[in-house]
Write a structure and sequence with these properties.
Length: 48
């Protein structure tokens, strides 16, 4: 994933003006590029 060290004012304004569900959709797309959407992370609790 590329690191963006600086944001321009227009980029920040564009981000804040997007509808929430559009932001969630874009985040899901990026997440699926880096993680298998069918894989479930398993966890267990250690009981003493």
């Amino acid at each position: 994933m590329a690191h963006r060290p600086r944001w321009t004012l227009s980029q920040v304004t564009e981000l804040f003006e997007k509808p929430l569900l559009d932001l969630l959709f874009e985040a899901q797309q990026v997440h699926r590029q880096h993680f298998d959407p069918r894989q479930v992370q398993g966890q267990h609790v250690a009981v003493d």
